[in-house]
Each structure stands twice: as structure tokens, then as C-alpha cells.
Amino acid sequence: MTRPTPETLAHTARRARAAADPTVDVDPAAARSAATPAVPAVRPSAPSQVSGAGSLVRSLEALGVDVVFGIPGGAILPAYDPLYDSTVRHILVRHEQGAGHAATGYAQATGKVGVCIATSGPGATNLVTPIADAYMDSVAMVAITGQVARPSIGTDAFQEADIQGITLPITKHNFLVQTAEEIPRVLAEAFHLASSGRPGPVLVDIPKDVLQAPTTFAWPPTLDLPGYRPTLHPHGKQIREAARLMAGARRPVLYVGGGVLKAGATDGLRRLAELTGIPVVTTLMALGAFPDSHRQHLGMPGMHGTVAAVYGLQKSDLIVALGARFDDRVTGKLDSFAPDATVVHADIDPAEIGKNRHVDVPIVGDAKHVIDELIAAVTVERSAGRTTDLGDWWTQLDDLRDRYPLGYDEPSDGTLSPQYVIKRLGEIAGPDTIFVAGVGQHQMWASQFISYEKPHTWLNSGGLGTMGYAVPAAMGAKVGKPDTVVWAVDGDGCFQMTNQELATCALEGIPVKIAVINNGNLGMVRQWQTLFYNERYSNTELGTHKHRIPDFVKLAEALGCVGLRCENAADVDKTIAAAMEINDAPVVIDFVVGKDAMVWPMVAAGTSNDEIMFARGVRPVFDEDDI
């Protein structure tokens, strides 16, 4: 096989971006302190004669894998024979996309590496969407695919697809295994790459004849990853400069992204926020990293963020970005974003720093180490009497929170309010519940009207925005956290893309709970048609209201689940309570809600955050002094 090089170990564009940015200051000593690639500490295994497939399964066992999600097929079939006797649990999904999203949900809920398996050709290409989803959201996942036998590669053989080439832009790294002897090393390298540094998906493609070939299995292997050494500890000079700016800023904001959750840095984040008194905003991927109920939390920024969070970033004089990437959904029109702000940007991936927004103080490092060292540096500043009174800044922000709180209007036609359903679901299920959302209006309402107090209780597809994510991701989360209640909040459009995985849940004893917010339409697309296309509703009505096709209660029952329906506010609480009492089977609730509800506030795509709308036709009024 082609040996991995520094250029291929991370995506080419990311590495080129980092190399081209002279402002990224990496402390050589800190870079050297990154841990040498290591195989998980397990009991060494004496050499034994097995097939390549046996070596694959033994490697998964040695790596501590407890579950994989997959579907067998011709090219991967040799791996399924030793898997039959393995301690690794295999969950037979109904579609490979479900396997990929389940692996993602498992990884997001547990912090472990999620694993999915598919055969060659269409089996492998069905994993492309969840692989891309995991890449965008930096999720540690290893996808193992079968490939046609080596002599057939390149001949357009039956069920052949160049999955290595197809996934090159959407994987952190990928491998085409050439010999059975290298399987243990490749698997160990794949897991190390997926879980270290900035997490991401890694693909391992194994030809069928390699799986069938005899080999000697021994553990642990020696990893060989030249050039791959993520910088974990930040440069001290950059930390001190960031602390100096934080001590002197009059309108600072802590802009928190999903990297803080990935790094396990939530406790440190709270200490830093409370030490400095600086307002906190958490992105869609970071909900739960800082308690929603905390006084310093302004909410979520961006397209459907709170007015206070959007304003706070936009009018700040200092943004301290921690594990966030200044994506377009947060910044709005980029050249008008936070025009007066000095930017401190801390990220483990140097390619993200300065990619979208000019950075004044770049910090490369793991968010946990960055935050811990910021706390120490800020403490020094405060001990020296260098601090700023943020009273005026908080007065402005509190005024905005009072005048423009999150809320909604009850539907005028008497239909059930989707916001009310989701709000009550969060209140009844409680803060220990894991909520998994699809993509669309229901996703935004779930981010707004459920209070996230703890880390890793909110899973969603943020970067790719993958409809169909919720059901299989909830399945994976429940497998990883079997003693935790897992609710998927899905739309009637998203639900119809992957609901076949409920059959998997029913047969495998995975009692997830699904709240289908059924508004009869592709809701977010319809909202845009209402606002920007003169109410010309082209191809957004799904028929789940008018024709009740499908009938979600009957569909749930056909898939081995308990099906419930709720159509009015008076029944919401008792329907949710009934679902909460069922713990031996999956439950689906069809919440039939009004079709005209919209997500507010809103910054229209391509516009400045200054143009945020609190509701339709209602723009927040800011004091002239504030602007």
C-alpha cells in the first residue's frame, strides 16, 4: 500500500491552508510534547495463524470495540464468519446510511470511536453521506468496507467502486489495505487518527482476497504515522496575549464551538467564564457545553440564534473563539461580521485559524489545555489589578434579553404549536436525556426550546445538515448509553428517509423514543418559500396531513414499535408521559402540528447579522449608542 505521508494524513486543503498562514504560531516544544501514537493498552497477544478476516476481527477486539453497525455483502462476507464468534456485537441495520449515522451517534454520545461496516460498491457508496456528515462535525468514526479482490481492482468488476478515491475529500485519512499482514497496524492507525487531534472519519478499504488470505496475527502492532503530531499544548506567548486582551476588553464574548465538547473542556469553560464574567455564546454544535440556565449564557448565535447572542458577537470588541470555526451560519455576511472585534482564535486544527475571519491572536492547541492555561494567565492579570468593569456591556445585553426573549405565537387556526410540543418534551424528559435532532425547523426549535444543562445531551447534524440523521443516530446513542433516555426529535420529511432503522431497534432491543413533528410539509423549505418566493409552495407538501400517507402510527406498529398520536395541546403532556413509561420497545409519537409555524429569530442567508429579524416584519431596535 502507499505509505501515509504528512500531506495525506490530513485533508490536503486543510494542511495547505495551515501551511500558507504565517500567523499561526506553533510552539515547537509544545508540538514535540504531543503524545507518540499509541495503541490502546490491552494484553499483548501471542502470534497466531488466522485469515485476514480473523485478523480484522481480532484487531477490533484488541482495540476495545464493543459494537459495530453494518450489513454483510459479497466482498466483506469473509469478515462476517469470525465476527460470528466474536465478543464484538454486530447490529444489522437496514441501510448502510443508517450504519454510518448510528456509528456517529454512538461516538457523539460516548466519546468513543464509532464503527460501521459495509460491502463494496453500493454498500460502500451508501456510507458516503454519513462519512461526509462525520467529517463536517469532526466525529471519530472508522468505516470498514469490503473491496473486490486485488486482481479485479480497476476492471469495473461487479460491485466495484473506488471508495478510497470517492471519500478522499471527506475523510481525515483513508487506507486501501494491500496485504493481510498489515491489517492490525492499519486498524490501530485508523483508530488513532480518528480519535486524536481534530477527530474525524477514517475509511479502511480491504479487498476480499486480503480478507481470505492466511496471516499471522499479533498485538500490539507498531504504528507508523510520519508527520502526524497534533499540537495539544498552546504557545505560552499567545496565551498571555489573549489574557491581556481579555483583561482590557470592554465588550468581550466567549464564542464556544463543538471543539470544547470534543476536548472534554466544559468544566474549564465554566471556570473561565465565571472568573472573567465574560458573556458566553454556544454554537449549534456546542449546546450543553455551558449550561443554558447560567446567567452568563446569551444562547446560540447565528441564523436562528437569540437576539442577544447575535448582537453580542456583532458589537463585541473582543471575540475569544474556542473550538469554533466561524462558519457562515454564525457570521452571516462575512465582511460585515463583528467589524470592531479583535479576534483570539483557539483550535486544534491550524487550518481553521484565519480560514474565514482574520485572527489577531492565533492559538493552536487542544481546547482543554488552552482553557486551563487561559485560566492561569487571566488569574495573573487579575492579581496584578488588570481587569475591566463589564457592567455597561451586561446592561446592554440584559436589556436585549428582556426585550427580545425566545418565544412563539400560538397558531391562530387552533392547531398544535410545534414549539409548545418541543418545550414540554424537554421539561418532562429532563436534563439527563439525550436529544437527537434531524434537520430543519424542528432542529432549530429543539435547539431553542429545550434547555441543555449538561454536555453530550444534544446530538445533531450541524455542518452537513443531513436529513435522515436523527433515527439512526438516536439508535447509536442508545446503544452507547443504554441506561439513558434517548429522544429523537424528527420532522415528517426527515423521518421518512431513515425510519426503517426502527425495525433494527425493535429487533435488537434498542428502546429509543421518536417525536415526529408532523407539519405535513418540508417545513424549513416552506418557510423560505413563504418569506422569499411569494408563497409559491413548489413541491414541499408531503401528504402526511391531507392524506395521512404514511400513517405514522400504523407505520410505527408495522416496524415493531409502539405508535401514539397527539393532535391538541391538552394531550401533549399525557402522551409524552405515556411514552416515557415504555422502556421495552421503541416508541413513535406522531405530533400533528400546524403547517405555518416559523423559526424566529432569523438572519436571512447572505445578509448581515445587523439585519436580524425578531419575527416576521419585526426588526430589533437597538440604541444608537449601542450601534
Compact summary:
The protein is of the alpha/beta class and 627 residues long.
Please describe what this structure looks like.
By secondary structure, the protein is α/β, with parallel strands linked by helices. It contains 26 helices and 20 strands. The strands form 4 sheets. It has a 6-stranded parallel β-sheet, sandwiched between helices. Strands 11-10-9-12-13-14 form a 6-stranded parallel β-sheet, sandwiched between helices. Strand 2 (67-70), helix 5 and strand 3 (89-92) form a beta-alpha-beta unit. The longest helix is centred in the middle third of the chain and has 17 residues, at 367-383. The protein is globular, with a radius of gyration of 25 Å. The termini are far apart. Residues 1-36 have low confidence and may be disordered.
